[in-house]
Amino acid sequence: MDAGPLVVLLHGVGARGRDLEPLARAIARGLPGARTACPDAPEPCDWDAGTRQWFSLTAVAEEERPARVRAARAGLDRAIGGIVAAEGMSGSLGRVALVGFSQGGTMALDAVASGRWPVAALAAIAGRWSIPAPMRPPGGTRVLLLHGEADPVVPVADAGRAAAALEGAGLAVRVATYPGVGHAIPPRGVAAVVRFLAEALAGEAGTDTAPRPVPGPGSGPGPGGWA
């Protein structure tokens, strides 16, 4: 029997892969047979060596973020590539999805926007749009962007920026924003991710993530870490 689809979840800075395991379990329940993986980012976090980061936020200016994302690509690609290879999915990226929260959402957005990972689906939650040019996204990747409207860490306007850029590059994008939600993954967001992945990976119909207007910028860290 064929193995099920693979979902790789990417945590934020100041967290570990295990912090996204509750979301991974919800995905596994909603997609029977699906496999999930929650890798640790390669670098120790600047302010907590017991947690990890994809790239440093120390003394980072907004204009410097794309360069830091670019520098972090090799570490991300090793993490995703190792999982994909171990699960026997190197030739089946059309049955792979990426889910990222916060800094992990930024890295997942870059993985698709750069064209490096032409996966079936991408769900980015509270991800910052700091993607280096040029963009070369694969045409078949479906995208879901989720964001709390009261996020004090990554402005909700970044979801609108990401949607505009990705739609302009030809991708199908859905956006859902959540009033009163900060930098976190709300229960409604978990349900939306599960339904989106079921539709994208298993052909199941139905989602509550129809596009809605993204407002301008408006708690502590969510379960996957800071941005």
UniProtKB/TrEMBL annotation:
Record region (Disordered): 206-227
Keywords recorded for this protein, A-Z: Hydrolase
Domain Phospholipase/carboxylesterase/thioesterase: from-to ranges: 5-198
Molecular-function annotations in GO: hydrolase activity
InterPro entries to which the protein is assigned, alphabetical: AB_hydrolase_fold, LYPA1-2/EST-like, PLipase/COase/thioEstase
Family as reported in the entry's similarity comment: Belongs to the AB hydrolase superfamily. AB hydrolase 2 family.
Protein name: Alpha/beta hydrolase
